[in-house]
Amino acid sequence: MMATGVTAHEVNSQQGASNQVAGRQSMGQNLALYVDSVSSYATINPAYSGTVSDVSLGLPSWFTKHPDLHHVIENGRAFVYIVPSPAMRSIGDVLAGAPTLNPKKIGTARQGKLWSPIEAAPIHDLPNVVPSNAIVYAM
Predict the structure, then answer these.
(1) How many H helices and E strands in the chain?
(2) Helix (H, G, I), strand (E, B), or coil: what is residue 39?
(3) DSSP string over 78-139
(4) Rounded to whole angstroms, how far apart are CA atoms 17 and 6?
(5) Nearest CA among 92, 80, 95, 91 for reference residue 139
(6) Which band of pLDDT confidence, cut at 50, 70 and 90, is reported for residue 46?
(7) CB-based contacts of 108: which residues, under 8 Å, 6+ apart?
(8) What's the whole-model pTM score?
(9) The pLDDT of residue 20
(10) Number of neighbours of residue 83 by Cβ within 10 angstroms
(11) How far apart are CA 97 and CA 11, in angstroms?
C-alpha cells in the first residue's frame, strides 16, 4: 500500500471547508435574487407594509429560498434579513457569495437599528419584526 501523506482527518477538514464556501456562495446568491425581488415589489407597491408571499414576489419557479432568509416592507421601504446560524455568522460570509450587493446597505440589527460595519453610527431604524443580531440588507 502506498502512503499519500494525507490523513482522513485532513480530507474531512478540506471537505468541510469546501462545503462552508459552497454554503456561503449559495446563501449569497439566494440573498441577491431575493433582494432584487423584494426591492422590485416594494418599488411597485410604495404604500405597502408587511411581508409578501414568495409567489407574489415573482420569484422564479426554480428558486428555493433559504430557510433563514426573511423580509419585511414598511411604507415601501424593504428590508431583507438573515437570522444567523452557525454556518452563516457574519456579514462577510453573506457578501462572499453576493458581490453585486452594495456593502454600504448591509449591517447587523441591534436595538431596533441597522449598524453598518462601515459606518460608526446606525444607518437605519428597523421594523420591530427584525430580530436583534440579524444580518440585514436595507433598500
Answers:
(1) 2, 6
(2) helix
(3) EEEEE--BTTB-SHHHHHHT-TTS-GGGEEEEETTEEEPSSSSSEEEE--TTSPTT-EEEE-
(4) 16
(5) 80
(6) very high
(7) 91, 114, 115, 117, 133, 134, 135, 136
(8) 0.78
(9) 44
(10) 15
(11) 24
